[in-house]
Amino acid sequence: MATATPTQQQASRRKAPTGYRDDTRLALLFILPALIGFSVFMIWPTLRGIYLSFTKFNLLTPPKFNGLDNYIRMVQDPVFWNALKVTLYYVALNIGLQTVLALVIAVMMQRLTQKTWLRGIVLTPYLVSNVVAAMVFLWILDYQLGIGNTILAGLGFDRLPFLSSDTWVIPTIALINVWRHVGYTALLIFAGLQMIPETVYEAGKIDGASEVRMFRSITIPLLRPILSLVLIITVVGSFQVFDTVAIATRGGPVDSSRVLQFYIYDVAFGRFQFGYASAMSVALLAVLVVITFVQYRLTRAESSDLA
């Protein structure tokens, strides 16, 4: 049997690194378009926004450096703190309702039926744009002419000022966005449920565990990494609520629905104070980074109980 000589073995070892370098170049070539897009549309605007947050800039004249003036103004601005409080209230309502409903829908789809057409129906509201959804619900929930209040009146209940009351406006906006996004969130959780082995549930049934016990002791712990991902995505998305507020309420009544994104938009494009708007955007970025880091650590998103 022929064996490789020491010279041939050395030549073979020298060829291996050459093939690895070729694969690296090919990988970089495939990554390059996405890297260019990420740099142009994400990194550069972020760096530009941080720079503008230290300037006075009205779009018509060059930015003028003013140090920490924008951040000092932000700390002393009661409208900013009210917008942050309103945003946190909205996020708490939206995330709480959306996560619970999505989890229930996903578990029902897994345990009762896995028909494709049902998943399509669940996802349908997500295909409607935020603007269209806001306009439709603005008509449905109108105090005098809306079909929602007409049904309430027909059932003998009082009409509700869903979008014109400082008490009802944020819960109503949260429900509109829950309606639109809950199907998408449910499908993400449903995909996570598919990763849990059926043998685990069969073992639970042999031990006499009820459906509730298996949901609490098997489904929730093994679904934790996916739930962590879903929470991070939905929390970041909820902080960016804008379309529904801009179409349905314009921040009213009396700033009760003036979320932070809408306030930033108003300051930038309504008052042309881009430096101050950039400072608030940087503050929002910092808040999201901190919340995401805390969520990531508390939920142990990097590890799974499936081993």
Q: How does the helix and strand content classify structurally?
A: mainly alpha
Query: Number of helical segments?
Result: 12
Helical content class: over 70%
* Rg measurement, Å: 26 Å
- What is the total tally of β strands? 2
Which architecture per CATH? Orthogonal Bundle
- The CATH topology is MetI-like fold
Number of domains: 1
- Secondary-structure element order, N to C: HEEHHHHHHHHHHH
Strand content: under 5%
Subcellular location: Cell membrane
InterPro entries: ABC_transporter_permease (IPR051393), MetI-like (IPR000515), MetI-like_sf (IPR035906)
Family: Belongs to the binding-protein-dependent transport system permease family.
Main location: membrane
Describe this protein's structure.
The chain has 307 residues and is mainly alpha-helical. It is built from twelve helices and two strands. Strand 1 (55-56) and strand 2 form a beta hairpin. The model has no long low-confidence stretch (mean pLDDT 87).
Q: What keywords describe this structure?
A:
307 residues; mainly alpha; MetI-like fold; two-stranded antiparallel ribbon; 12 helices; globular; MetI-like; sugar transport; cell membrane; MetI-like_sf
Q: Which helices and strands occur, and which strands form pairs?
A:
Blueprint: H1 6-52, E1 55-56, E2 64-65, H2 69-75, H3 78-111, H4 116-123, H5 130-140, H6 147-154, H7 169-193, H8 198-206, H9 211-239, H10 243-248, H11 260-270, H12 274-298
Antiparallel strand pairs: 1-2
Helix pairs in contact: 1-12, 2-12, 3-7, 3-9, 4-7, 7-9, 9-12, 11-12
Keywords: Cell membrane, Membrane, Sugar transport, Transmembrane, Transmembrane helix, Transport
Main location: membrane
Transmembrane segments: 26-47, 88-109, 121-141, 168-191, 222-242, 274-294
